[in-house]
Write a structure and sequence with these properties.
Blueprint lengths: L8 E2 L5 H7 L9 H8 L9 H5 L6 H9 L3 H11 L3 H7 L22 H15 L13 E5 L3 H12 L3 E5 L8 H4 L10 H10 L4 E4 L10 H7 L2 E4 L5 E2 L12 E3 H10 L8 E2 L1 E5 L3 H13 L3 E5 L11 H9 L3 E3 L2 E9 L2 E12 L5 E11 L2 E4 L3 E2 L6 E2 L2 E2 L3 E2 L2 E2 L12 E3 L11 H26 L1
Parallel strand pairs: 2-3, 2-5, 3-4, 5-21, 7-15, 9-10, 9-15, 10-11
Antiparallel strand pairs: 1-8, 6-16, 12-13, 13-14, 17-18, 19-20
């Protein structure tokens, strides 16, 4: 058999019809009959553990009761009152470790109630019908700037708009949505769902979006504070951790987040450049999404390498198992040590097996191996970039642990400036957590603005 050439990267490894099938909805929705059957399995627990497990505290038994009685509007209202992004969270949340994981029906003999699928069933009805569930309060006269059009920023904006405040959302990207638009596997949010969800969110009124407006480049925090009564920072994480090995800029070595964003924005998947041999480094959801999508694009060999064991991976067991069923080879306890270059082209990557030393710290074992690779995708974490929050080499905000420091109400060290989402960090690195941050911050901002109005009166 002829050896595959080095740097074997090309578009169109699969035909458009096959690609469309590969990137169709990974979890097709329930029909009305299936939803009714699933809803009737719920015990409607009084102190429901599923509510406690949901970061946004959705009254899950209540919305399921709505589905069981044919009241989809009521069910959707219950969901979206607690979680503005209830539709996307129904698709991307790790329900197996959150609500469904603690469901009282989740036993050795029984499967849990399909909470995620039922939540999707109710919220899809809203996006399909355009039903206006909420009404905006009278104009308060206050203006709020939101930096970042991701889940945290838009959840904050929606709740503030409902309270009657005028909100302008500034985002560095051309499209709103943040992670939902650019960073989640295409088969989880297909059919331009992120846009549909945002269209519904904006229908409340009182929210305007300014795209291509990067903080520190096109706008400054000082100007936003001058022009608005309050500012919310929800810009997420803009930096990507480096591997820390030589020749990391070699062609063929890419950030996994950039690969996923390119795929998400492509109108023709058959035009995307795909390697035959792909190595993904990392153990989180981004690594899993990058590996699976590489395989679905037509890569012959995809290997995911993580420096520790499977229990230390931030990707859930469900996601890890899904990657394996998709044909991704997973290697644990190995760390990258160097890239292999031949004739100016990436040819492979060298790893060293790792282990825990006597003090429980990760250490190299001295035993090395190599993997052939046309493309190496880095997915070893993202970092907060504080540069836009500096003026004249001075930090404008207090940072803690490399992220924006906030109090219990998400207020920063600057008056009238709040922050939430990934740029502050939190209990979990999930979309639903960012939504909860944005909503809680909005409640605090609204309270502060009303107190100011009362004092002025």
């Amino acid at each position: 058999m002829a050896r595959k050439p080095l740097g074997d990267i090309a578009p169109g490894r699969l035909d458009p019809a096959t690609l469309a099938q590969h990137f169709d909805d990974v979890a097709p929705p329930l029909d009305d009959r299936q939803a009714l059957i699933a809803a009737n399995r719920c015990y409607y627990c009084y102190d429901a553990p599923c509510i406690e497990a949901c970061p946004t505290g959705i009254d899950i038994p209540e919305f399921i009761r709505g589905i069981a009685t044919g009241n989809l509007k009521g069910a959707a209202t219950t969901i979206l009152s607690s979680n503005t992004f209830g539709g996307s969270c129904a698709r991307v949340c790790p329900t197996e470790i959150l609500c469904e994981g603690v469901c009282v029906r989740n036993t050795a003999e029984s499967l849990p109630v399909q909470i995620g699928a039922l939540q999707r069933h109710a919220t899809d009805w809203v996006y399909e019908t355009g039903a206006p569930l909420f009404q905006r309060a009278p104009d308060s006269g206050f203006k709020v700037a939101v930096v970042g059009a991701g889940p945290a920023g838009l959840a904050c904006a929606h709740r503030l708009a409902r309270a009657g405040h005028a909100v302008t959302v500034f985002d560095a990207k051309a499209k709103p949505g943040g992670l939902n638009e650019y960073g989640i596997a295409a088969y989880k949010l297909p059919d331009d769902f992120a846009r549909k969800e945002i269209d519904w969110l904006l229908s409340i009124g009182g929210i305007s979006i300014q795209p291509d407006a990067a903080l520190g480049e096109h706008i400054t925090l000082a100007q936003l504070r001058k022009d608005h009564d309050a500012v919310f920072l929800g810009m997420g994480l803009a930096g990507v951790n480096a591997l820390g090995i030589e020749d990391e800029a070699l062609p063929g070595v890419r950030n996994a987040v950039d690969f996923i964003a390119e795929l998400r924005q492509s109108d023709a998947l058959a035009t995307l450049q795909v390697g035959r041999r792909i190595v993904v480094i990392g153990g989180g959801n981004t690594a899993i999404d990058a590996a699976i999508q590489s395989k679905r694009l037509g890569a012959e060999s995809v290997t995911l390498v993580y420096r520790r064991g499977p229990e230390a991976m931030s990707a859930t067991t469900h996601e890890q198992d899904f990657a394996k069923t998709e044909g991704v080879n997973v290697i644990h306890w190995a760390a990258p040590r160097g890239l292999i270059e031949k004739d100016g082209v990436l040819a492979g990557i060298e790893f060293e097996y790792t282990q825990l030393d006597a003090n429980g710290k990760l250490a190299g074992s001295g035993d090395r191996f190599t993997l052939e690779a046309d493309i190496v995708l880095k997915a070893i974490g993202q970092t907060f970039v504080p540069d836009p929050l500096r003026e004249s080499d001075m930090d404008l905000l207090e940072l803690r642990g490399g992220r924006i420091a906030v109090d219990a109400d998400f207020a920063t060290s600057l008056p009238d400036v709040w922050a939430g989402g990934d740029c502050v960090g939190g209990k979990t690195d999930l979309t639903v957590q960012a939504v909860d941050d944005g909503q809680r911050a909005a409640t605090a901002i609204d309270r502060a603005l009303l107190a100011r109005a009362t004092k002025a009166a």
